[in-house]
Amino acid sequence: MSPTCRPSCSHAPLLLFLFTMLAILLITLVAIAGLADPGLVLAFVSPSPRKEESSDKHSASILPYFALQKVLKEASPIYGTTAVNYGAESDTATWMSAYHDETLLVHMNIPGTHHAASWNHASAAQDSLEYINHLANLSAVRPDFYRCQARSIAVMLDAGIRVFDLRYALDVTRTNLVFWHGDALQSETASVDDVLYSLYNWLEWHKSEAILLSFQYEAGGNDAVTQAMLYATLTSPAARQYMVQARGDLGTLGQARGKITLLRRFDLDLLPPVYENSIPGVHFPPNNWTDNGPDMALIYNKTTGATAYIEDYYQPLTPNNSTAETNIRWKVNATEAHLRKAAWGDHPDSLYWTFASSTNTGHNPPITPVIQALGNGSKSTPDGGVNDQLLPFFQSMRGERLGIVMFDFYDDVVELVPTFLGLLAPDESVRFSGKHICCANFESRSRCRCFLLHNNPCFQIDSASASSSNQIIDTLTVLKTHKMFAQFQTSYSGIETSLQKLTDSIAAYNPSVRDAEELLAADEAVNKNIEQLVTHQQNHQRLASLRATADALDATIQNTIRLLADTRRDIQSIPSVDSEDRREVGVEELLQYAKFIAPTTVAPTFRKPLPDEDEQMPKKKEGATEVGANGIVTPVDVDTNPAYTKSGQDKKEAEPAAPPPPPPPPLPAYDFVPWPDHGKITAGALGDIQRMLDAGQDPAAVLSAEEQAEVDRKRKEQEAEERKRAEELERQQRDAFGDYSSGRRGTVVFNPDDL
């Protein structure tokens, strides 16, 4: 071998090794690129007619991948590590895919996380930020004071979390927007832009899902520079592509799929109005957000009046030395009261937003977010934390809309989020519009038709259980009871809050009149709720009584219907009798017989009862006088009356009283005949009239027996008067001329009338 070839020959194995490693590296990159975008593999393996064109396609395809990987790496302190194989994800990663596009977001149960960016705020992260904190003159604080989560945002997305509470501000160099929790910096490298691009990438792989981001300014120094940088981030071309552009309206799930809905807890008041008017999302003005409010109503669309009902009672106002169990109980009471309002309230189409997160680090010892959420693991918190106590509450709220609920350390209670997601099925969410009652009008044999309360279709129930109206009464009672219980819990929490404020002011030697007035108002609200509760119990007892009466009447009606059915069956079972001995009757014969029918006929057995003798004789009133006594009744003197004897009196008293006359014999049970027979008609007045007509006489000129008797009586009276006048005239003549029959001789006087 010549000396000139020795150097090249000696480097040949090394060059071969380098080319081999380069090939392996290239193949590895192609494989990774294929997982991220299958089109990249085709860019390497597909033949190309021109080398220059193939090189251009290769460069255009691989560069976005490297750029995305760089962004994901920079965002990892906040976003976390992106899973590569999405095919092995759990069902919760795509739980929204089962819901209909028409489902309103306000009708869904959507889990969220409070201070989602704080999951990596541990001691190691604090140590890595030591020099930056020193540069910003930030004092070191216990990490557990600010840490509210234990899982990254990427893991949260896979677990079903869809609402993220993120707090932003400028970094210590005032050149970039990063995430903070109070005065605790979460990361100097992971910017808001980086995390948003990570979320955009996740949505590319999960087109069925929707994300809601709550952005809130944190820490001091909110200036025009900060607002301008945030506006640029939220209105960039990528943001316009992946964010819902509607303003003041949450809309439907179909409109939000594959996009981010912005919940704006910030203002752009330091910029011209055009900035505020052009940024998308639902605006919750910070000045209208009640600090540490257990129950607030916030209008987010003045045009439509759309209102959000929010609970953000993040620091229970307990006494300074209260235990962790007391703080947990106060927070649970406020959270459950607000969730009951979401389920049973009067605003079914409004947004309900509940924060189950809380802390009280000002206590001694401090109560950190993890203690509030999970308890301290000792006997001092036997029921666990807020999450432990919310799990059985969720299990009792099957079928209810609770809205958005924000958790701390959601994953430590394993069944918490799955139970919350399972409260309202997809079909129930799309038909949800308030509370429900079912009735007994059936569309089919197995289902019932519903009528509405708050214009809301009810859940379907079996027809067997809907056959009674008692179920409607029970449902109404349950609805009223739950609503009253929620009101009572709210008013009681108001008393606790007002009392704590007043106690604190007294302890500070500065009693507050306003707090005292609030306490009185809260006490009046409790008294009013108690009065309503008493009325409710009275109404419940009344309903129970009416229900018993209704059941008894139902039983009576059922027995009556059953008896009628049996009677009808018996009547139908009787065979009909058709007599063979029948005589045909012509129409003329029937009419000839019908002319004798009287205008009014009664049954021959009808007899009007005669009044008793005592009833016929008018009773003599006490103190009445005899006729002719001139109003004076003269008593009879027993001693002076000769007709009165004691023996007669004794005899009269000895006689027994006459027995009452026997009742008349009952009339024979004649069969009812609607008209008299022919014999009775011919023997009566109608027969006489008919005979007169047959003889050619006018019945009107012929007197009846009564009329003839009256004429005879008057004739006799007239004859008697004429005889009386004749006798009187004869007596007068005798008195004038004397009595010739006396036998004496008398003088005759000439009377000219005798001529």
Automatic annotation (TrEMBL):
The keyword Cell cycle does not apply. InterPro entries: Mediator_Med4, PI-PLC_domain, PLC-like_Pdiesterase_TIM-brl. Coiled coil: none annotated. Pfam families: Med4 (PF10018). It is found in: Nucleus. GO terms for biological process: lipid metabolic process; regulation of transcription by RNA polymerase II. Gene3D superfamilies: Phosphatidylinositol (PI) phosphodiesterase. Keywords: Nucleus, Transcription, Transcription regulation. GO terms for molecular function: phosphoric diester hydrolase activity; transcription coregulator activity. Residues 657-668 have a biased composition (Pro residues). Belongs to the Mediator complex subunit 4 family. This is Mediator of RNA polymerase II transcription subunit 4. It comes from Pseudocercospora eumusae. The lineage of its organism: Eukaryota, Fungi, Dikarya, Ascomycota, Pezizomycotina.
